[in-house]
Design brief:
Blueprint (H helix, E strand, L loop, with lengths): L2 H27 L4 H5 L7 E2 L4 E2 L2 E2 L5 H4 L7 H14 L16 H7 L3 E2 L10
Parallel strand pairs: 3-4
Antiparallel strand pairs: 1-2
Length: 125
């Protein structure tokens, strides 16, 4: 292989790499990112275009959705759902500390990402 052939091969490889990078960025811009393709969170999701976060409603979120919150794993998510099923809907955000395993620090960490509404939640009066 002479110098011209090596140069042509390198140009081809670089062109393909640039094409792949452009394709990845284009997919992120139109909302077909890997996150959106593999996860379906209708209540809490990040708007890729604007970078905004729609808050998760504690009164309608299921355990899987609750697990995306910082510091909330499967056990705490289940405890939140169980508490809601036993005691009814949350009336205010601070009531979350009544759930076993959730204290003030956990509440502070997740507060920016959650809300409590009673108007839209089934069974909330």
């Amino acid at each position: 292989m002479n110098g011209k052939e090596r140069f042509a091969g390198a140009v081809l490889v670089i062109t393909l790499a640039i094409g792949i990078i452009v394709e990845v960025f284009d997919r992120q811009q139109d909302g077909t990112t890997v996150f959106r393709q593999t996860c379906d969170f209708p209540v809490a999701s990040i708007d890729d275009v604007r970078g905004e976060f729609r808050k998760l409603d504690l009164n309608i979120a299921n355990a899987g959705e609750l697990e995306i919150l910082p510091g909330i794993g499967p056990k705490k998510a289940k405890a939140i759902v169980d508490y809601r099923e036993r005691n009814g809907c949350f009336k205010y955000l601070g009531q979350l500390t009544e759930v076993k395993g959730i204290g003030e620090k956990t509440l502070e960490r997740i507060a920016p990402y959650v809300l409590v509404t009673t108007e839209v939640a089934p069974g909330c009066d």
